[in-house]
Design brief:
- This protein is α/β, with parallel strands linked by helices and about 260 residues long.
- It folds into two domains: about 140 residues, 3-Layer(aba) Sandwich (Rossmann fold); about 110 residues, Rossmann fold.
- Helix content is about 45%, strand content about 20%.
- The chain is built from eleven helices and ten strands.
- The strands form two sheets. The protein has a six-stranded parallel beta sheet, sandwiched between helices.
- Helix 9 links the parallel strand 7 and strand 8.
- The longest helix is centred in the first third of the chain and has 17 residues.
- The radius of gyration is 17 Å and the shape is globular.
- The structure holds D-glutamic acid (DGL).
- D-glutamic acid binds next to helix 3.
- The site of D-glutamic acid has 17 residues, from helix 3.
Length: about 260
Amino acid sequence: MDNRPIGFFDSGLGGLTSIMCLKDMMPNEKVLFYGDTARTPYGSKSPDTIRDFSKHIVEYLISMNVKLIVIACNTATSMALEMLREEFKDIPIVGVIEPTVRKVAKDSRKSVGIIGTKATINSDIYNATLRKYNPDIKTSSLACPAFVPLIEEGIVDNKIMDLTIKYYMDDFVKNGDFDSLILGCTHYPLISENINRIYPNLKLYSSSQEVIGDVKRILTERDMLAKENDYKDRYYASDLSENFLKMTDNLFKNRDKKIKLIKLG
Ligand code: DGL
């Protein structure tokens, strides 16, 4: 048994969608979340910058005595996971990409579309990982760089978001030969209802959700699951934007939580 919190981080609000899944699947687990809201979006930044930011956050989470770290960000996973595992060998670090690909492979999907940030899509990591599991799988990828800034601004449940989705995705879905779609960015579950409504025939895979299965497996294998305890979830951010406060309130209404501004680096 291990009652220490699980550390989560993301460039901004997106990683909160993974915590929602954790709370559904493993309600005893407590979290320390760090959202780098001052420096979001990561998706249009260079690999070195993303690695630097990710390293600072992991150092901070380790200093806060977390028991496992979830990189609740596809962009940071694609750029920094290997480097972070190499550098911080004493703590399990889980990324969002491999668990999602494993689920797609388990469902025997033959063709899949992938949407994500520019950095994630340019890294080609989803294609490479999908082919590792199924060399014959057909993939089509698309970067949708305007989604994250709109979501961070809370522009979600309205026509502007719908038009932006169509602007990026109409041709992609029409011309692409796929029946399922990986939401390769942890911000995207916040617009999954829009995507589902506009393209009802696509089966959606959420990278935010699949990673929690891995967390459960690792903590169980290592006998590190938490028992009920009075640790309060902590939500830290590098900028306490109005939207971060609104979003944490909306998502975690009745849960005891502490929100604080922490600047790193
Ligand atoms: N939620 C992130 C991801 O999964 C963030 C994207 C960004 O900061 O651009 O890729």
